[in-house]
Amino acid sequence: MNAAIHVDRLNKTFARKTALIDLALSIQPGEMVALIGASGSGKSTLLRHMAGLARCDKHNGGSVQVLGREVQSCGRLNRNVRQLRSDIGYIFQQFNLVNRLSVLDNVLLGCLGRMPSWRGNLSLFNAEEKRRAMESLDRVGLADLAAQRASTLSGGQQQRVAIARTLTQRAEIILADEPIASLDPESARKVMEILADINRRDGKTVVVTLHQVDYAVRYCQRAVALKAGRIHFDGAAETLSTEFLNDLYGADLDTRLLFSDKARSADKPVKLVLAAVR
Fold first, then answer.
1. CA–CA separation, 200 vs 204, rounded Å?
2. Is the pLDDT of residue 233 over 90?
3. What domain range is 184 assigned to?
């Protein structure tokens, strides 16, 4: 089976700072993977390279393949990268909605990558596209707010609209960059449950960057920890230990509320808190 995402010897340098160093990673179809690590470890940078939203170094920069197709290599994007992005749903930390548009219109934007540009420019969505958008809103529990302006929604609701837009896009891979960083605990739980449901029911490959390790352990089968631009851990999320997390986060880890075997076995949220890592 071909990897859904394959990263080979990826290097990225910003001015004098090295963000990614010879990073190699393969993610299989249908996996739900958490990228964890302290602020500045390279999580978001790696995610943006997977989507072709950032270019790696020109010299010995490495390469990224998604669904067997090359996204970029040695600082050069595939000339068909826009077409490739139609299979990659990207969820931003700050939602990336058009505030003046309605909820439904924002979700319909997910159709743009699979429709003629002239229809997209004129916002001429057909009945099937509108039906799919409403089904996506129903999936995230917001169908009753379809006509409401996006700017009137709470942060948690806006992030769920962003997920609905990705569902409407019919992306095979979902990349979520800190999707719960600015949300309250209840909204964060709803967002993570929706992403996990999409992974489980639809078989979509989901990669999510998280500061909250407790959510990574509860909702993701696999965790990849980055430290200073390198992979520091790659394995089952449930095997993460207190000792390892102390090493990974150092002073950023609040050790007063660490997970216990009892919490794990009871299938409850892991009691582990990261303090001020953002």
1. 8
2. yes
3. 5-274
